Structure formats: C-alpha cells, structure tokens
Amino acid sequence: MKVIDLINKSSKTLFSFELLPPLRGHNINSIYRTIDPLMEFNPSFINVTYHQEEVVYKKRENGLLEKKTIRKRPGTVAISAAIKYKYPSVEVVPHIICGGFTKEETEYALIDFHYLGIDNILALRGDAPKNQRTFTPEKNGHAYASSLVSQITDMNRGKYLDDELLNTFSTNFCVGVAGYPEKHIESPNLAYDMKYMKEKIEAGAEYIITQMFFDNRKYFDFVDACRKEGITVPIIPGLKPICTLKEINVLPQIFNIDIPDDLVKEVMKCKTNEEVFKAGIEWSIKQSRELISFGVPVLHYFSVGISENIAQIAKAVF
Questions:
Q1: Which of 33, 161, 192, 279 is most deeply buried (CB count within 10 A of its CB)?
Q2: Options 18, 91, 107, 182, the catalytic residue
C-alpha cells in the first residue's frame, strides 16, 4: 500500500522508522536485529537509506589521480526486497538519491523496485561526499531532488528516458521528499529553501518527511510556512534521540540544526553515554507526545542502526 494511502486511511498517528544499511561484510541479520524489537509497535513503513560509494583520489607515479573506492554498503534494492518479504505487513520505502547516479542508473533501480512490488520511494538529492565541499551531480545525473521526482513521475505515466524503448510499462510509485524545518544547510534562508520545497511538490511528491529537529516549534513553524505557500501534502516529523555526548556538537555541524538549551543542559549533566542515552529517550518521548497531540500523521524515527531507544520511545507513546 502507498504511504499516502496509509496516512489517509488512519485516524491516528502512525509509527515508522529509517534504517541505515550496514557496511559490506555484515549480513542481513544485522538489519533484522534492528527491526525485530520494533515489530510489536506495528510500524506502517520502514525507510531504507541509499548512499554513494566513499572514494579517495590517490596520486599515481605519472602525476595523475586514481579514483579508488574505500567503502561500500549493500545495495538498497536487495535490502528492501529482503525486508519486504520477511515482514509482509510493513511497507518498504527505499531512498533514491541524485548524487553518484546517472539518470539511466536511476531508471534501472526504479525498474527493479517496480518488479519487486515496491510502490514507495523517498526521493532525495543526497549530500556531498565527505571528501567534497559541495554537491556535484554525476554527468547525466540529477542536480536537484525536484528533477529526480519528475523522472519518477514520468515513469508513473509510462514515459522513459528512451522514447523508443520497447516493453515499457507505467509504474505506480508514491513519492516522498525531504523537508528542512531549520533550512537546508546550503540554502541562504528559509524563504529560499521553501521555493525548492514547493518545486518538489509540484513535480509530483505526495508527502514530506522532515530532517531531524529537537525543538517542536521548528516543526510547527515549518508546517505553517508550507501551508502559506499552498503546500497541502502531509508533513511527517523526523526524530532522532540523542545517544552520545558528542552528538550535541556533531549533529548541529552535520545537519545545520539547533539543540535547545534545556536538552543541552540535561545532556551536560550526564557523566556517561549510558546516561545520555536515557536522557535522549526522555526528551524524544516528550517531543513525540506533543507532536501526537498536534495531530501529526506519522512519527518517523531515525534509528541509525540502533533500535533499543526507539523501542522504549514507541512503548511510551504508542
């Protein structure tokens, strides 16, 4: 079932979460160990992230640079298929990103997802690799998420990159996109960021999942801004519990977000990461309860390979 249909048919807030594929060398059981403790809370859908290969450039003896892959993750297509057929009651939402992929490679992946009976996609531009300061699209790739959404929408209409391609078919993807309550790190301001948000919806996106935030007021203001721009699709809040002391400093740098003073004070009182872990759960429970009372369609949690804290939060609020 499509995510938008799950939302429209439910009279209460749904539960969902996101998975980070393990590094190559691990097997699918590491994914199942994350999912299994959360199944008792009846997740409506599970997101599976997509990542570019991590590369470095090594200098050859002739002075030229050689591109070398140093880290890979298992394919999102394979992981999505494994989850779909082990947990048939849960919808799978694989991520598709612009970075590192041509339009042709994106089309191949979408054909695979359609073949597997996966009807939901989260379309993202993706971040710049760690060794690059700015995002650079692949040659013949997408520079913006709105363009990626348009390609998926075209396939839903039976339009492929090659107009002469034989045995084509219309796909039936429900497309979600990302939203940034505190603006995308590369946007000069929120108003400018909203322009791109609207373009993604106009291209065919049916719902929004936000970047993590720790102050619910940021989410409420973002929803208000979207509605004023005529964006009427469901807006799903994305939440991540603080797990370690260093995240107080690292998360704002990576995601361009603010950590509220009250949360910083609670975390700074902690003497160990175990205490931080508990404080993060307590804060996320308070966030979740307030968001449910606001009437959010779904609470979506970023697990980052850890499910113990998500399970405790879900037990308290669902």
A1: 279
A2: 18
Q: Is 54 a catalytic residue?
A: no
| Reported pTM | 0.91
Cα separation, 233 vs 9, in Å, equals: 15
Helix/strand/coil for 152: helix
- Dihedral pair phi/psi, residue 93, rounded to 5°: -120, 90
Phi, psi of 37 (to 5 degrees): -65, -15
d(CA 34, CA 15): 15
- Residuewise pLDDT in 10s, the chain (318 residues): 999 999 999 999 999 999 987 665 567 888 899 999 999 999 999 999 986 655 555 667 676 666 554 444 457 898 999 999 999 999 999 999 998 889 999 999 999 999 999 999 999 998 766 666 777 888 899 999 999 999 999 999 999 999 888 778 899 999 999 999 999 888 899 888 999 999 999 999 999 999 999 999 999 999 999 999 999 999 999 999 999 999 999 999 989 999 999 999 999 999 999 999 999 999 999 999 999 999 999 999 999 888 999 999 999 999
Domain count, the chain: 1
Strand stretches in 22-71, DSSP E? 45-48, 54-59, 65-71
Helix (DSSP H) and strand (DSSP E) numbers for the chain: 11, 10
Report the CATH number that the domain containing residue 251 is assigned in CATH: 3.20.20.220
- Return the CA Rg of the chain: 20
Please give the distance of CA 81 from its chain centroid, rounded to a whole number: 18
Domain that holds residue 269: 3-317
What is the full DSSP assignment across 5-18? HHHHH-SS-EEEEE
Burial class (CB in 10 A: 0-12, 13-18, 19+), 270: middle
Q: Write the DSSP string, 110-144.
A: HHHHHHTT--EEEEE--PPPTT-SS--PPTTB-SS
